[in-house]
Amino acid sequence: MNHYALPDGSAALDGDLTGMGEHTDFGFVTVLWADQVPGLQVLSADGAWHDVSPVDGALLVNLGDLTARLTNDRWMSTLHRVKPPVVDGTVRRRRSVAYFHDGNIDAVVSTLPSHLDADDGLAYEPVLVRDHIRAKLAGSRQGKANTGAVREAARVRAASAGHPPRQFRVS
Fold first, then answer.
1. CA dihedral over 153, 99, 43, 171, signed as positive or negative
2. Distance CA 152, CA 170 (A)
3. What is the pLDDT of residue 107?
4. 67 neighbors 29 (Cβ within 8 angstroms)
5. Which burial class, exposed, middle or buried, applies to 151 when counting CB atoms under 10 A from its CB (0-12, 13-18, 19+)?
6. Tens of pLDDT along 53-87?
7. Helix/strand/coil percentages in the chain, nearest 5
8. How many whole angstroms separate alpha carbon 18 and alpha carbon 81?
9. Per-residue model confidence (pLDDT) at position 171
10. Beta partners for 81?
11. pLDDT tens digits for range 95-110
């Protein structure tokens, strides 16, 4: 369960506000319930960030990095972020509930033969789910480079290129 909120009252906020920075989910698929407070954004193929507006009673589904590995990037993991819940200068509470399906930790994930591309070859080496998750966590939780996520990191850098930090003031 996620609860994105800023402190009540007035606050001076400078810089590029981030609830959760640009990232892809680690596993195969993520199923998400979210309220209709703006914040969740996905990166489209044209390089622009788009707000996600959940429909009442609907669930959102994101593909994860293990799906990208399985399909040799034919089905890409969803690059997304969460912006702080500031609507018309007012801080609002934003809630979501996510279920992450990462798979059996002892399973080996290899690109499916039907997704091998003779021109591009194999994008990923086979990996144990446990090792994949461990590498992703080591990079994202310990402040060090995640050498096992080169492709994902390149997508995040490309998404951030040319977007200078914005200044916000909330009172």
1. negative
2. 33
3. 96
4. yes
5. middle
6. 888 888 999 999 999 999 988 898 988 988 877 77
7. 20, 25, 50
8. 8
9. 30
10. 41
11. 788 999 999 999 999 9
